[in-house]
Automatic annotation (TrEMBL):
Residues 9-173 form the N-acetyltransferase domain. Gene3D superfamilies: 3.40.630.30. Coiled coil: none annotated. It comes from Arthrobacter zhaoxinii. This is GNAT family N-acetyltransferase.
């Protein structure tokens, strides 16, 4: 998986040593509250380790799950995701679309990090030849919708096409 650099951040693969950070991030309701229909808090380190292993398997050279790290401190700030998005329906089959997403630690909110990392991953996706990237947010997730707009994604209104729920949809087309 390609490591990506921005002005302030390094986006690199997660490793087993990141399990404490992953647990700290996903055990917080302020992080989980808009993720999924029925948010569940992570409870122990073994769940974090299992999640990191699952993320590693998602790496196909284009899609992947990046650990976002501050360059000047080495501190982890969050997660940037580029992955197939499941269609609504009982089987949650792949929709054929690729989604971008961001989950940041509250200590790192409000610094523009999600937008900075999102720009880098969108550029990576288009350099790899993806024709389009989508993002979906809970309609109440103002911060995430703001990130979508700041990185140039176009609001497309609400959709029930994904995740068996109603989301705000944003899209970005490959400019190439
Ligand atoms: C969404 C999230 C990644 C944003 O992280 P961030 O690092 O603060 O994002 P940025 O600093 O790049 O940009 C956030 C923007 O939203 C704005 N914002 C933040 N909270 C807001 C709120 N409650 N109401 C309105 N705007 C808000 C900020 O002012 C900023 O816009 P600006 O630069 O024009 O001022 C972060 O809140 C998060 O991880 N939330 C939990 C996980 C989550 O919900 N992820 C998205 C799933 S779709």
């Amino acid at each position: 998986m390609q490591t990506l650099e921005t002005a302030r951040l390094t986006l690199r693969p997660f490793t087993a040593e990141d399990a404490d950070f992953v647990l700290d991030l996903y055990s917080r309701m302020e992080v989980q509250r808009f993720l999924g229909v029925d948010p569940k808090l992570m409870r122990d380190r073994s769940e974090a380790t299992t999640l990191i292993e699952a993320w590693t398997r998602r790496d196909d050279g284009t899609c992947g799950i990046w650990a976002v790290q501050e360059q000047d401190t080495g501190k982890l700030a969050g997660t940037l995701l580029l992955k197939p998005i499941p269609a609504s329906g009982p089987e949650r089959k792949p929709s054929g679309d690729i989604e971008i997403g961001w989950h940041f630690h509250p200590d790192s909110w409000g610094k523009g990090y999600a937008s900075e990392a999102g720009v880098a991953v969108l550029a990576h996706a288009f350099a790899a030849g993806l024709p389009q990237v989508v993002a979906v947010t809970n309609p109440a997730n103002t911060a995430s919708m703001r990130v979508c707009k700041k990185i140039g994604m176009i609001p497309r209104g609400t959709t029930d096409r994904y995740y068996n729920t109603v989301c705000e949809l944003f899209t970005a087309e490959n400019p190439g």
